[in-house]
């Protein structure tokens, strides 16, 4: 009898389906790291962005070291960093969680051995196509920002 | 001849009506009675918040169930009683402190999201009790409320010195057999999230099978062998530029796809390891029921919340 009643109600029950929850995967936003490691991640509610910093073995090892917060780090030859920045959007499936949307930019910092100390190359692949007036100055800022990131603690 | 037919027909109707009536009486007399046990620790919130919850949820999720006459008529009475029993078991606004303090806030976010998804109050109940429906304006009140209590708790963030890794001697294993492993560090990141709701930052990794399933849009259901790993850090307070960076490692959560083995939880095996010592979560295998219950909200994406998505056409 119980199962009969359950059946009656199962057929009556309305299907609570919100159209905003009908979603398809958007794999284009997945970054192909080509074997780089995750160093750390951060998000920013003001700029509505979320970012993951990747690096090669050298970059990861150096970002994980204890360091004095007051001496800015300069690159070590051999390091490669990639900072991927996405739009930040509200997760359509959970109010309270923000998730990455589309990729905004990929910044690459490569450190090689120069004649007088490390040579640093900076490149930005910007899908938002915003042209920066003070490109040179802001590049230097971006490089030191990337160098300053400490590796997240993983188990 | 004709008269005889009519007579037979009338008899049949009378017998059928008799059977129906008798079953109704039997059902009605045996209808489950819903008791209202004492209120031991009532949920306290701002008046505008409790007013909404009382009207929309208390019939089932409290000891102040106040049913209408038509809720007591068989066969509906059976369904209503079963719902009230199950709802009180899940959580009870009249016994709010039976939820560990640390979990109460998470439960409130769960509550808001169940309403947001149109799952609560139960649709079949809302259809017969239109007054119980939560209006969009009321939902906004509830959303603002949970956001404000979380901000209060997390605005200081975790700026304490970050504790570094220590080696775990044995491979931690969840009670359902899922073992911790390190290999996800070589997998692709499928998404990253920041949660103002509980002050954490996350990175979500997928193995090759999971990434391929996303690329081919074959996630209903996800293929066997897909594994998704979520690493959770407690967030630091925002820096001068507003960047919220991960602080201490908090926990790691794993979902393993095996439709047969984990049939009772929609084909997903769940595991969670907390703290740098990776303490397995869950005392009995049934812990995963609470995982999948909430992940039902992501049914449309194969019970996975954190995948990159676009609106489906």
From TrEMBL, chain A:
Identification of the protein by name: Uncharacterized protein
Organism name: Dyadobacter soli
UniProtKB/TrEMBL annotation, chain B:
Alphabetical list of Pfam families matching this protein: Cytochrome_P460 (PF16694), Haem_bd (PF14376)
Keyword Ribosomal protein: no
Sorted UniProt keywords: Membrane, Transmembrane, Transmembrane helix
The keyword Transmembrane helix belongs to this UniProt entry's keyword annotation: yes
Domain of life: Bacteria
Haem-binding domain: residues covered: 21-150
Name of the molecule in the record: Cytochrome P460
Taxonomic source organism: Dyadobacter soli
Lineage: Bacteria, Pseudomonadati, Bacteroidota, Cytophagia, Cytophagales
């Amino acid at each position: 009898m119980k199962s009969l009643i359950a059946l009656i109600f199962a057929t009556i029950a309305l299907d609570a389906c919100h159209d905003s929850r009908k979603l398809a995967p958007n794999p284009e936003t997945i970054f192909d790291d080509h074997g780089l490691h995750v160093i750390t991640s951060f998000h920013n509610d003001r700029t509505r962005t979320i970012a993951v910093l990747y690096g090669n073995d050298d970059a990861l090892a150096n970002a994980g070291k204890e360091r004095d917060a007051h001496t800015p780090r300069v690159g070590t030859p051999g390091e490669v960093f990639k900072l991927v920045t996405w739009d930040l959007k509200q997760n359509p499936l959970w109010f309270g969680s923000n998730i990455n949307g589309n990729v905004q930019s990929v910044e690459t910092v490569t450190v090689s051995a120069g004649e007088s100390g490390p040579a640093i190359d900076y490149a930005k692949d910007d899908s938002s196509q915003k042209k920066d007036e003070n490109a040179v100055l802001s590049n230097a800022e971006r490089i030191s920002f990337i160098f300053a990131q400490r590796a997240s603690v993983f188990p | 001849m004709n008269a005889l037919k009519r007579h037979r027909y009338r008899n049949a109707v009378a017998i059928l009506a008799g059977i129906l009536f008798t079953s109704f009486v039997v059902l009605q007399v045996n209808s489950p009675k819903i008791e209202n046990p004492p209120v031991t620790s009532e949920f306290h919130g701002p008046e505008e918040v409790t007013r909404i919850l009382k009207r929309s949820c208390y019939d089932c999720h409290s000891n102040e169930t106040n049913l209408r006459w038509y809720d007591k008529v068989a066969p509906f009475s059976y369904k209503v009683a079963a719902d009230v029993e199950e709802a009180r078991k899940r959580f009870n606004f009249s016994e709010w402190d039976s939820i560990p303090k640390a979990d109460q806030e998470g439960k409130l976010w769960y509550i808001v999201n169940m309403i947001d998804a149109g799952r609560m109050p139960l649709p079949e109940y809302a259809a017969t009790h239109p007054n119980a429906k939560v209006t969009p304006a009321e939902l906004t009140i509830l959303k603002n409320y949970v956001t404000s209590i979380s901000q209060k708790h997390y605005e200081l963030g975790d700026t304490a010195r970050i504790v570094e890794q220590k080696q775990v001697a044995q491979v931690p294993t969840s009670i359902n057999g899922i073992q911790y492993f390190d290999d996800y560090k070589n997998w692709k990141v499928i998404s990253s999230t920041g949660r103002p709701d509980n002050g954490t930052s996350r990175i979500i990794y997928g193995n090759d099978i999971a990434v391929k399933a996303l690329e081919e849009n074959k996630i209903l259901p996800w293929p066997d062998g897909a594994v998704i790993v979520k690493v959770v850090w407690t967030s630091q307070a925002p820096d001068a530029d507003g960047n919220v960076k991960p602080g201490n490692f908090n926990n790691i959560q794993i979902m393993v796809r095996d439709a047969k083995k984990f049939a009772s939880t929609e084909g997903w095996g769940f595991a969670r390891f907390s703290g740098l010592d990776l303490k397995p979560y869950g005392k009995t295998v049934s812990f995963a029921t609470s995982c999948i219950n909430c992940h039902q909200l992501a049914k449309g994406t194969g019970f996975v919340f954190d995948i990159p998505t676009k609106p489906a056409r």
